[in-house]
């Protein structure tokens, strides 16, 4: 088993075109619950079924790195806003918290112990509808985006988008959290910071944010609740073991 320190975050990444992972698809099927098999069968396209299967294999095998539980034995429940959590954590198993994200070509699983955590990955080449920022970003974020030259706007759009997604996922409310009531400030090369309206009942200083480029086509953002100093974050590429 791996050791996950109490005050740390591990992020495992799977590239969906990885030949070693694709060779294990049949073995991954044996890890899924009946409900997961039903969900997978509802996808129309092969690529979407494959992405779902790899995502479920990733979270199950990742959690099994940190606890003596077989990948197929994990049970999950979703909160009222859809965030998955571990159901009936066995005695002696650490309070593992995880979050998942997937996009074209990449799947990510972030794990920590006893902390709110959210992750988002996006393919920066995907099409954007006109004025998505105006609908979903805070006014300060929209103003910052529109100040930029056109050739920089796409990158910064995904900076903001992934950060906002990671935060609402970490809070566990999804899109029930008003996206205009919190705003990020980008501070490269320092970490981003957040300003939160009092109505959201949260402390901006209690959050750590991290951004990364796992590949030239993929932007990643992490949100994790901390106390005081930043937590170390490990990012690695994996193939879920069969």
Q: Explain this structure to me?
A:
This protein has seven helices and eleven strands. The protein has helices at residues 19-22, 25-29, 34-41, 46-64, 132-136, 139-147, 150-171; strands at 9-15, 76-78, 84-86, 96-103, 106-113, 117-123, 182-185, 193-196, 207-215, 218-225, 233-237. The longest helix has 22 residues, at 150-171. The chain starts with 8 loop residues before the first strand and ends in a 5-residue tail after the last strand. The model has no long low-confidence stretch (mean pLDDT 94).
What's the topology here?
Elements: E1 9-15, H1 19-22, H2 25-29, H3 34-41, H4 46-64, E2 76-78, E3 84-86, E4 96-103, E5 106-113, E6 117-123, H5 132-136, H6 139-147, H7 150-171, E7 182-185, E8 193-196, E9 207-215, E10 218-225, E11 233-237
Parallel strand pairs: 1-11
Antiparallel strand pairs: 1-5, 2-3, 4-5, 6-10, 7-8, 9-10
